[in-house]
Write a structure and sequence with these properties.
Layout lengths: L8 E2 L1 E5 L7 E6 L13 H14 L4 E6 L2 E5 L17 E2 L15
Parallel strand pairs: 1-6
Antiparallel strand pairs: 2-5, 3-4
The chain binds zinc ion.
Zinc ion binds next to α1.
Length: 107
């Protein structure tokens, strides 16, 4: 029995993930590298910056916001359509290859 592969191409979209946590905020001192606790809003990390500045005199901070995304097929039914084998299968569509270079004109 020969092995056989079935390929289907599907467009995918990316959207903000809503099933888990929202964005997570953390600030870090640019002088000593100490960081705030992670929080789900900016208030805690910003307060930490002010307290850290008051204690240490360090005045530069870096903020990191971690957001979550979810990839899903653009056409939600495309994964539900079984192949001829009865197995749903999806493969992200790849960008088409770039066009061949045009010939330079010579004089
Ligand atoms: Zn510091």
């Amino acid at each position: 029995m020969a092995a056989r592969s079935v390929w289907r191409f599907v467009d995918w979209t990316l959207s903000v993930g809503t099933s888990g946590s929202g964005p997570i905020y953390v600030t870090e001192c640019a002088t000593c590298g100490t960081s705030s606790d992670a929080a789900d809003d900016t208030e805690g990390p910003e307060t930490w910056c002010l307290q850290h500045a008051g204690r240490t005199g360090h005045t530069g901070f870096r903020s990191t916001i971690t957001s979550f995304f979810r990839a899903s097929p653009a056409d939600a039914t495309s994964l539900a359509e079984p192949t001829s084998d009865g197995v749903p299968l999806a493969v992200p569509r790849q960008a088409p290859p770039p066009p061949p270079p045009t010939k330079a004109r010579t004089r």
